[in-house]
Amino acid sequence: MKKHFQNQVAIVTGAASGIGRELTVQLLSHGATVMATDVNLTGLETLRAEQSAAGNRLQIAPLDVTDRAACEQLIHAVAKNHSKLDFMFNNAGICIFGEVKNMAPAQWDRIIDINIRGVVNGTDIAYKIMCEQGSGHIVNTASGAGLMPIPLMTAYCMTKHAVVGLSTALREEARRYNVRVSAICPGIITTNIVNATESRDFDLKKMHASSPVKEVPVTKAVTTILKEVAGNKAKIVFPRDIKITTKSYAILPGAYSFLSQLGLKTVLKQK
After folding, report:
1. Residue 165's domain spans which residues?
2. Does residue 156 have an active-site annotation?
3. What separation in angstroms does the CA of 164 have from each of 44, 135, 161, 197, 214?
């Protein structure tokens, strides 16, 4: 993997925490130059301080991925300053948990703008640059929820299905230009996502603490992601239980729906 990323230029959105932060750390360890972006400038500054040994191979910049003009300015600046752009990791995203009947229009707007429009902005701008240079790899963070329905996460599922669709369809178009496209579809990763998830109806910390689902440590998750990116995997699905669940849904959707309804009743009773 080190050879694959060494001396490569990458942009990572949502880099102040979670997957984005660890992507930045591991890319730097493999010898890449990284532009780390996020709306959380304090988190980026902490990251830069902790990764001071990387020197000028780590650059940081505040970025709202929903701002098309700002995305264009930053992505084009990185490509111009380094005479290339090798990797675009569109990782920024949010999650909203709860019944659709209780969602406000503003919540729909926010999750669509960040999770879909933000990924479209990064993908579209980087893709055009990569087509011109004849190389590059776009990596979009989706979710296992982008491969199957999960009740109480309808808005999130919708956006992540969109990211998977964008990534897999563009991957076929991009072949002729020698540009690669991958979608990351993980299960639950040990990040700050629970604290960052919006929910009006449920105590997510309590649900999270009692969940039998094993989390994947973020360091292990990103190691898996980068290994699969290096192998040009179209859909990076992990861990094993998510692979099994998504395949089960594809083969036996009726059985999946039955179990899903049982789980939904249990959660609603806890509420």
Report:
1. 2-270
2. yes
3. 27, 21, 5, 21, 24
